[in-house]
Write a structure and sequence with these properties.
Blueprint lengths: L2 H16 L6 H8 L3 H7 L3 H24 L5 H13 L8 H9 L4 H22 L6 H21 L2 H18 L7
């Protein structure tokens, strides 16, 4: 594994598990086995490392979600099934993007931008899932995004299955309410 990848892998684990501010670059160096000089050659600042972590997390998170959902007969239900599976993973600590934004967003335009791009990418994906099935796909996509983020926050502090189940029911109801009326 190349140096940059080792640093990023170590940082991703530490940042998600403990928080961005709680982890220093020396700790990332020690966990990655890369010298501090090499670490800073790969990532010239902690902010650059956090941005790289979030960009990689976006790719992996979205790939996992879309891989699970795509091709399912009820994609909205599948989104929430996937969430329930994610919530049940060992080491689940909520949304890495919201967590990073909460720690650095006010101080880092770069972090704020990568978090915004992730949420916009998720919104666009949800819009694509409901387009053609509801009268207002923009509204339903926004509702689903809020339900996903809300369920993720709730799952951090209460029974995880209940958060996914409640969000799923609300998401299916939102889609049904705005479905086109096909009666004569």
């Amino acid at each position: 594994m190349e140096h940059a990848e080792r640093v990023l892998t170590a940082a991703a684990d530490l940042f998600y598990r403990r928080g961005v501010r709680a982890v220093g670059m020396d700790e990332v160096r020690a966990a990655s086995g890369v010298s501090l000089k090499r670490l800073y050659q790969c990532y010239p600042s902690k902010e650059a490392l956090v941005v790289a972590y979030l960009e990689r997390r976006d790719e992996r998170w979205m790939s996992s979600l879309t891989g699970y959902v795509d091709g399912r007969t009820d994609p909205i239900a599948a989104v929430f099934e996937w969430l329930e599976r994610w919530f049940g993973e060992d080491g689940f600590r909520g949304c890495g993007f919201v967590n990073a934004y909460g720690e650095l967003g006010a101080d880092s335009d770069a972090v704020r931008e990568v978090v915004r791009r992730h949420k916009e990418r998720l919104r666009a994906y949800l819009h694509g899932l409901v387009a053609g099935a509801v009268t207002d796909p923009g509204l339903v996509a926004e509702q689903l995004l809020v339900l996903i983020d809300g369920a993720t926050a709730v799952a951090m502090v209460s029974p995880r299955e209940a958060a996914a189940t409640a969000a799923r029911a609300a998401g299916l109801a939102a889609a049904a309410i705005t479905a086109p009326d096909e009666s004569p």
